[in-house]
Amino acid sequence: MFKHEKKSVKNEIERLSPWYSTIELYPGVFTSGHMLRNIALTRELIRRCEVKGLRCLDIGAMEAVATILLKRRGAADVIAVDGDNRAHKMPLLKSAYEVDFQYFGNIALHNTLDFLLNKSRLEAVGGRPYRFGFDLIVLSGVLYHVYSPVHVLATARSCLRKGGLMIIETAAVNDPGFTMQYNFTGDKYIYDWTDTWFISAPLLDYFCRFFRMEPLDCVYLPQENRGFRNLIRLGVVCRAVDSEPAADNESIMGKSTWNYDHNSIVRYDLTEGNEKEPVPYHRNTKELVLRDDIKTCDIYKTINSGSPFPVTEDRLILKLHDKC
Questions:
Q1: Is residue 308 exposed (0-12), middle (13-18) or buried (19+ Cβ within 10 Å)?
Q2: Does residue 272 carry a pLDDT above 60?
Q3: Among the CATH numbers 3.40.5.10, 2.160.20.10, 3.40.50.150, 3.40.930.10, which is that of 37-308?
Q4: pTM of the entire structure?
């Protein structure tokens, strides 16, 4: 009902403050959230995916901006989970954007996989066919907040069916080394207290392939200096595949999966039997650099041979008419 009553919407916005994102909830009435440039990367990569009829998962959904856009683009079912709990905002958001989705707050990252598995099993008991594995997963603005990006990537990959797509957006480092930069440099912090690791572009590329995902495309934005060089926001799209896409000089990649704890952090078996056609994706081949041997997107070379993604102010705000 709020979308038809301007005063009620304004009162609800105030009651539900603070807001993380800037979202239009009535024509000309916006929340007082941030206007973060990195959201433009996630939105662009969602726009390049054909999501109609898909089952999607938004991990670290915050105020469900990506969730809403997925539904607006025709996703059949979207589940949003977050370690925080913003469930009290969801009725207002759903009403304003005339979409329905499932939102679950207070879901810690290390509990996400078990939560989703149990949810699917309970639905099967209730009469719905048991089907685990999502067609598309959004993991936006999460990796640099966590203590172990490797474990979070493994959790997300365990939920992605073969042929499905994963959109990853994170603060990263544009450096040729296979490194992760800690938030503290010895004399200063790069970001705020909620942030931990900034992964280099080549290492993110490697980790994606290590977890049986084929990098398809990427976009990036330079970040303000913050006293640390080469800081960027990086968006990547990967497709889940059967095995590790390893280059000729990476023969040890497959052997590394023999490590005793490998199967304790990633579970490819959970989505077996849920294989379907690959989710269509329309990548920007104009600036894409492919590896010579395995033909996957070379993330580091692509961002260093192309231009930053052009961001306009309207891509930083979710507006009522937006569908991507």
A1: middle
A2: yes
A3: 3.40.50.150
A4: 0.95
